[in-house]
Amino acid sequence: MKMFGSIGTRSLLFGVHQFLWHPFTVWLAWKELYGPPSWNETVCIAFHDIGYWGKKNMDGCDGLRHPEAGAELVGRMFGEEYRQLVLGHSRSYAQIHKISSSKLCWADKLSIKYELWWIYLPRAWASGELKEYRAVADQTGFIDKNNSHRTWLNKLKEQMLSQAKEEGTKVKGVELELSA
Ligand SMILES: [Fe+2]
Q: In which domain, by residue range, is 101 found?
């Protein structure tokens, strides 16, 4: 699959961050958390991960900088507020650069609710992301490499949904149904 470019490029073309499907699930999650997004917010959702293009890893030094390209683009179109919205969508990026996580961060996390294992895992496998994610999960003690991919995905879902739920309860009037 390496003929399709770096792991970040493959992720956008047919992997976990597939450029049509992933933003669609984030849009649904945003709607659930905050109500329907505005046009500007929808554009931010559409382009938030474009910075993965050409990235040599997902969670390493290179991949961690992925919010910058999308932020630059929407910043030029709509201004600083939207630049920050995209820049703060990655919690790791926000922590490293001492900026606040944005509303897009929680919608991004909740979006995994709309992923079914048989849609998600084949994409993650084909792009090569699965190998990286499992290695990182093993190293950090999140889940041992001997567990199945489906067990890993279930645990990942649980973690991401509880983070989104935590934040969701701070957003007035939000009721989350996290039984996915
Ligand atoms: Fe995303």
A: 2-168
| CB-based contacts of 91, cutoff 8 Å, min separation 6 | 101, 105
The Å distance, Cα 55 to ligand 1 centre, comes to 15
Of all residues in the chain, the percent with pLDDT exceeding 70 is 92
Enumerate residues 6+ apart whose C-beta is below 8 A from 88: 67, 94, 99, 100, 101, 102, 104, 105
With 0.70 as the threshold, say if the pTM is over it.
Answer: yes
* Residue 173 counted as domain residue: no
Q: How many domains does the chain have?
A: 1
Neighbours of ion ligand 1 (CB under 5 A): 49, 108
Quick one: pLDDT at residue 54? 96
Is 176 among the domain residues? no
Residue 178 maps to a domain: no
Rounded to the nearest angstrom, the distance between the alpha carbon of 22 and the centre of ligand 1 is 7
50 alpha carbon – ligand 1 mean position (Å)? 9
Give the distance (Å) from ligand 1 centre to CA of residue 147. 25
Whether 174 is covered by a domain: the verdict is: no
